[in-house]
Structures are given as C-alpha cells and as structure tokens.
Design goal:
The complex is a heterodimer of chains A (327) and B (220). Chain A folds into two domains: 118 residues, Orthogonal Bundle (Cytochrome Bc1 Complex, Chain D, domain 2); 119 residues, Cytochrome Bc1 Complex, Chain D, domain 2, CATH 1.10.760. In chain A, helix 8 crosses helix 11. Chain A has 327 residues and is mostly helical. Helix content of chain A is 38%, strand content 5%. Chain A contains 13 helices and six strands. In chain A, strands 1-2 form a two-stranded antiparallel sheet. In chain A, strand 3 and strand 4 form a beta hairpin. The longest helix of chain B has 19 residues. Chain B folds into two domains: 85 residues, Cytochrome c-like domain (Cytochrome Bc1 Complex, Chain D, domain 2, Orthogonal Bundle), CATH 1.10.760.10; 89 residues, Orthogonal Bundle (Cytochrome Bc1 Complex, Chain D, domain 2), CATH 1.10.760.10. The chains are: A mainly alpha (327), B mainly alpha (220). Chains A and B meet through strand 4 of A and helix 10 of B. Chain A: GO terms for molecular function: electron transfer activity; heme binding; metal ion binding. Chain A: Pfam families: Cytochrome_CBB3, SoxA-TsdA_cyt-c. Chain A: This is Thiosulfate dehydrogenase.
C-alpha cells in the first residue's frame, strides 16, 4: 500500500514536470540520460563556501581556479592569445551536463588520449585547451595557475566515481559523428544569419564592450585555432544543439545544428599548432582528428588552413606540448 | 576660418551619413518630448525632460540608453510586439523621423546618480549573484552574459539594465513572462524571464536598480 502511494507520487511528480515544460514558451530541451549512466550533480561555489571540511587554504586555491576558469582573459598575452575563456565552451561554470562539464577530466585521467597518442594527466588535458581552444601557451605544469585550475576541476568532481566512463552529458558528441548527407554551406549560412549573427556578428568576430569579450568570436584571429576540438564539425554541432542560442538549449533542429556547425567551421582561424608548413599534409598526419574538420580541404576555392597566421600568438607551437613514451 | 571649414566638413559628413541611414536630431526630439505625438501625453510627462523616469511609477529611465534601442521600442509598441496601454497611444502618431529624434534626444541626456538600494542585504546578494553568475541549475545564465560587463548594455540589442528602475525591471520581467512583451530577438529574454522565481525577480530588480548606470556611448 505504502509502495503504491510512493509510486503514484513519483508518477504525478514526473507528469507535472512535463506539463510545466510544455507550457514554457522557451523550454529547456536537453537530452535524456541513458539507462545505467552516471549522472553527476557538480557542487557550486556556494557549496564550497559552506563546506567547513575544506581547509581555508584549499578553498582559496579552488576559488583562484574558479576565477581563472571564468575569466581566463586575465592571462591574455601570457597564456591566452585569443578572446576565449574556459567558460566560453564549458558553460555554466564548467558544471553543466551537456555543456562540456570539466570534472570528468579529474575522475578519468590519467588515461590514454587519441589526440596526442599518449597517457595524459589532468594538467596535460587542461594544457590542450590553452594550446588549441585559447590559441596559447599552457601555464607550466606544477605552477600556481595550473594547481588552481586542477583544484577547481577536482572540487567539481566531488563524490563522482573514479574511472567511471559511462557519464551522462559528458563532452560534445550526442548527435553522433556522422555529418548529414544534405550538409551545405548555404544552408548553414542561413541558419547562422537567423540565429547566431545577432550576438556573434555577420563576420563571426563576436562583440566586445569596453575591451571585454561579451560574445566570443567563432572564427578569425580571436577564435579557437585549427587544432581545437570545436573545429570538428560533430563537436560543434553537439555544442550548438545543447547550448545555443544562449538560454535556448535544444531549440535548433539537429539538422540546423549540423548545418551551422559546418558553416562556422568552413571559416578561417589561427593555424593548428601542429602545422608542418602544408595544411593538406598536416591534415593527413593528424587524420584521426582532421577527418572530422574541413582543415586542409578545398572550401570555396581555397585550402582551409594554408597560411602562416597564428593570430595574436607570436609563435606556432607551445614549448610544453610534447610527446611522451615509457619505452 | 579654420573652425568654419571644420564645421562645414562636419555638416558634409552628417549629410553624407544621413543619406546612408536616417539619423535622429536631438534638438528636434526635444520638441517632441515636450509636445508629444499630437494625440497623447508628451514623453516628458512620465520620463521627464532629463529622461530620469520614475521608480515609484515604474516609468523607465531613458537617459543614456542606446538611441537605436529606444527607437526600436517605440516601433515595437506600434507593431504590437511590446504591449502597453500607456505607451502605445502616446507614440502611434510619431513619424519614423520623430521616433529617431526622440531616441537621439534621450540617448544624449546625462544618466542620473544611482538610487539608494532597496531591499535587505540578503536580497541584494541574491540579485548580484543572478546578475553576474546566474542560476545555472535552473538554466538561468547571468544577466551580464548578454547585457555586458556590469550590465551596462551591449550595442543596440542588449540595453543597459544597471541603474534602471527596479520597479520597471520587475514589471518588464513579468511582461516577458506573460507575453505582453515579446520583442526580444530570437526570444533570448523570454526563456530566462519565465524560469525566474518571484523572489529572484525581486532580487535582481533590487540589485540592478541600485547600480550606477553608464551612458551607452560611455561619454558621461
């Protein structure tokens, strides 16, 4: 009897949630978790402030990491050479499922990464974001900045199971990797004009106010470089589907998300730090990655990425991006 | 003589640019603000000649807002995408040029000094958090992610809301929720407004209302 009552309560609670969702003029349409997946609820900064078990010195370091994460532009010209911050892609303070939550890096690494074909630490994973997405030079391993960033990641991972890989809302791949057959630059351009240009601009350069980035650039010198994960069309499509336009997740059709991701990633951007001097050859050398990008291919009469432009960054490859073997 | 030439050049430049895009003339706007559109109350009756508005009556501050933003709101009242029984009859006889002129006039008025904060510290702290960090667990991004640093506005689409009257902010958030106001491009404001609780609306209105506004052009 008691069981039945509880079941009834659960059913009616679920139903009332759905009624509310369908009544909303702008619903939050995020994917459902798959059965058996671990669903994490990352703690907030308020939780951190209220947790008396955290040593005050550690709290200070985590808060420093949070501050660097939210405003990575404070490292502009030192470690960051474009208009991006960590939060630009990892929305909702890096906590949100379906927005590239960053805590899984703290629970699944060290692990082998296909991108650089060796076992990566959490620091090295963060270094990748600096080298590619922020078109920069990673802070030194073991440095105060790196410690602060890793401390924030680990705080967000609180209570999550270590090495669990079946994680709900992780990464940007829920639309799969197969680009639709009807993909077209013109279709993507139309989706962009209707949904994205008002914030990111017709030229994709984003918008600043008083020198501060408000809407990030999507291509050009201020954007992520040709080695960033978002240059993969499938990554951008899933990011867009579940995060854009801001406050309207899931509002674009899957196909529109693909089309506009294709359009955005058909534009020029700073050079891939792994560039060998020839974009086609670089594409072939890193084909596991670049088979998902348009880099080194002919787009509108030009080979994308065939240039020496590294944006604001006065070098091509960060010195601390290195291969690693245990042979 | 030199000064004269400079002025002539300036006039020439203005003529040239107005050929490309219609420009508001603040001096002409001043007349409309005093006289109204011929069939209703003059703008100054509620918004003041200085554009300071009135918090108690929920009349918004217009001083220092972006001119294109102000102009669009008047057009939207006439188009029915922003519904107000007070505003619509007072702007429905304005010509496009008069709309531009009124917008230019109010945009160049000096922003008033910040008002004393209303509400207790706890409420203001909640408002500050929503304005600058949001409430992502309810999928509410921070106000500043569109309204810009310190919520002083970005371009002609995202108005400055820092230093706007709290009562007006509360009223508008309710208008977004009810649909009385639906002139947001891409419905960028609607979803956020309908996810806010009443307490969050109170908090963000109190916090933003207590901030010092900065003119859209940053010249104040």
């Amino acid at each position: 009897m008691k069981h039945n009552f509880m079941l009834l309560t659960v059913v009616s609670a679920v139903m009332s949630t759905q009624v509310v969702a369908s009544d909303a003029k702008v619903p939050v349409n995020l994917p459902e978790s798959k059965p058996g997946q671990y669903v994490h609820q990352a703690p907030t900064i308020d939780d951190l402030m209220a947790d008396e078990s955290v040593h005050p010195e550690l709290r200070k370091v985590i808060l420093k990491g949070y501050d660097l994460f939210m405003n990575t532009q404070q490292l502009r010209g030192e470690y960051v050479f474009n208009d991006m911050s960590c939060k630009t892609c990892h929305m909702g303070e890096g906590r949100m499922n379906w927005s590239g939550p960053v805590w899984p890096a703290a629970t699944t690494l060290p692990d082998y990464r296909g991108k650089n074909k060796h076992v990566n630490s959490l620091e090295e994973r963060i270094a990748g974001c600096f080298a590619y997405s922020m078109n920069g030079q990673p802070p030194a391993y073991g440095s105060d900045d790196m410690l602060a960033l890793t401390a924030y990641h680990q705080w967000l991972a609180k209570s999550a199971p270590v090495y669990e890989k079946n994680i709900s809302g992780r990464g940007f791949s829920h639309l799969g990797k197969q680009i639709p057959d009807d993909i077209s630059y013109a279709k993507g351009e139309a989706v962009y004009a209707a949904n994205c240009a008002i914030c990111h601009g017709n030229d994709g350069a984003g918008q600043k106010k008083d020198g501060k980035v408000v809407f990030p650039p999507l291509w050009g010198d201020g954007a992520y470089n040709w080695g960033a994960g978002l240059t993969r069309v499938f990554t951008a499509a899933s990011f867009i589907k579940n995060n854009m336009p801001l406050s309207k997740p899931g509002s674009l059709s899957d196909n529109d998300a693909w089309q506009v991701a294709w359009y955005i990633n058909s534009q020029e951007r700073p050079q891939d730090p792994r560039y060998t001097g020839d974009a086609r050859a670089t594409r072939e050398q890193f084909i596991d990655f670049h088979k998902h990008t348009r880099y080194g291919t002919d787009v509108n009469g030009k080979v994308l990425g065939q240039h020496d432009n590294t944006g604001e960054k006065p070098f091509l490859k960060p010195s601390n991006l290195k291969p690693r073997t245990f042979e | 003589m030199l000064q004269r030439n400079g002025r002539l050049t300036l006039v020439g430049a203005l003529l040239f640019s107005s050929a490309l895009q219609a420009q508001g003339v603040a001096a002409d706007g001043r007349q409309v603000v005093m006289q109204g559109d011929g069939s209703g109350a003059p703008c100054m009756a509620c918004h003041g000649m200085d554009g300071a508005g009135n918090n108690a009556a929920s009349f918004p501050r217009l001083a220092g807002l972006d001119a294109d933003y102000i102009a669009k709101q008047m057009r939207d009242y006439n188009a029915g995408t922003r519904i107000s029984a007070i505003m619509q009859p007072n702007v429905d006889n304005l010509s496009e040029q008069q709309i531009l002129d009124v917008a230019a006039y109010y945009a160049e008025q000096a922003v008033p000094a910040a008002q004393a904060a209303t509400g207790n510290e706890e409420l203001l702290a909640l408002g500050e958090k929503l304005a600058n960090r949001g409430d992502w667990d309810q999928y509410i991004p921070a106000c500043e992610s569109c309204h810009g640093p310190d919520n002083q506005g970005v371009g002609s689409t995202f108005p400055g809301i820092a230093g706007q009257h709290g009562n007006y902010i509360r009223q508008q958030l309710h208008a977004w929720r009810s649909g009385a106001r639906h002139n947001d491009p891409n419905q960028l404001m609607t979803g956020v407004a309908e996810r806010l609780t009443e307490q969050q609306i109170e908090a963000v209105a109190a916090y933003l209302g207590s901030r010092q506004a900065v003119a859209a052009e940053g010249e104040q």
